[in-house]
Amino acid sequence: MVRRRSFLLAVGTVALAQILTGCNSDEAAFRVLLLDNSIPSQLIGDFRSSISSKSIFTLESQLKTLLKLLQTWQAKDLSKPNKNSGLPFINKKPAPVPDLVTLGDSWLATAIEQKLISPLEGDLKWQQLPPRWQEIVRRDEQGMVSQQGKIWGAPYRWGTTMIAYRKDNLKKLGWEPKDWGDLWREDVRNRISLLDQPREVIGLTLKKLGYSYNSDNINQIPNLKSDLVALNKQAKFYSSDHYLEPLILGDTWLAVGWSHEIIPLLKNYRDIAAVVPQSGTALWADIWVKPAAVIKPSKFVQDWINFCWQSKSAKEISLFTDAVSPVILELAPENLPQAIRDNPLLLIDKNILEKSDFIKPLPASVEKQYENLWREIRVAISD
User: Fold this and answer.
1) Which positions carry the signal peptide feature in this UniProt record (predicted)?
2) What is the pLDDT of residues 55-91, one digit of tens each?
């Protein structure tokens, strides 16, 4: 479904390396494999100093790679040693599977259905999270959101789909984007890049029309197909990986993309700004999941999750990772750092948040409607 990439986190000092890796040779160590730049290094150091066991934190730059690793671990018998082809007399024991791994919420259904992860148990401080962030990880065995389902993950940061735009170019036109409907303006035709994701593009069009990203029976929604045809005529190209480069160069003037990639860009390019559409947008979350291949789960799993949900940790995540902890939404505004409180791209307007949706898995028949509509639109463009 929806795929998000992350920029590499530069690790340049011996001190930071020691914080992240700990002692690799200790098989009893608590292990976490996390997405680059999703947890501040100082937070990892604080946690390591608070527990009585060694811990190893490993970084990975791509969410899709984390999913592939979960699939690899599940497919292998990790209780057997690996034979080293270069040194046949040495049998190496496989590296232990991490106790926790970062996974994007869009991959959660796949991970559950393929039995790559196990439900979370123990004394987790769920009251720290808003209800919607609790709901998104409660799933049935097929990965569908269910109030009666088990808890399959622990959200620790989230963001949005937003519109980035060239202030210099749009200033000449006398307007700046405020909502999804601005993408249909005639004066930006062939100046827009869109994510190559059916649920994202169809979803933002549904929002423009006043519907949810998770609408069913979309074939019955008036003007949906015609608006998508019109939007696709506006688009210069589709990409989920390279939508920012043309914006930087000025080849496009608007780009639909993910907040954790757009927000860092704004610090270096003053002619680029961004906005969270007023009619609501798509939400995403990074979550901790427990690999099913773990042979002996660490007792520190719940400690680490609860540590990430502490208010101090939540503030650090929100200040230093270009995303926001869900815990922030439960704190009084006056208790938040000004840098968070005054940033509408991080702490988005409550009215916009209420109108926004996590992109949830849909029944197969409904997913088919989205796929067929997307195929029709893309074929129509190429003709």
Assistant:
1) 1-17
2) 999 999 999 999 999 999 988 755 555 555 454 544 5
Q: Which domain holds residue 141?
A: 14-158+284-348
Model pLDDT, residue 95:
77
Residue 8 in domain: no
Give the residues of the chain that fall short of pLDDT 50. Answer: 1-24, 85, 87, 89-90, 382-383
SS (H, E, C) the chain: CCCCECCCCCCCCHHHHHHHHCCCCCCCCEEEEEECCCCCHHHHHHHHCCCCCCEEEEEECEHHHHHHHHHHHHHCCCCCCEECCCCCCCEECCCCCCCEEEEEHHHHHHHHHCCCEECCCCCCCHHHCCHHHHHCCEECCCCCECCCCEECCEEEEEEEEEEEEEHHHHHHHCCCCCCHHHHHCHHHCCCEEECCCHHHHHHHHHHHCCCCCCCCCHHHCCCHHHHHHHHHHHEEEECCCCCCHHHHHCCCCEEEEEHHHHHHHHCCCCCEEEECCCCCCEEEEEEEEEECCCCCCCCCHHHHHHHHCCHHHHHHHHHHCCCECHHHHHCCHHHCCHHHHCCCCCCCCHHHHHCCEECCCCCHHHHHHHHHHHHHHHHHHHC
Predicted model pTM: 0.89
The reply to whether 228 and 293 lie within a common domain is no
Q: Is residue 197 part of a domain?
A: yes
Q: What's the CATH code of the domain at 323?
A: 3.40.190.10
Number of domains in the chain: 2
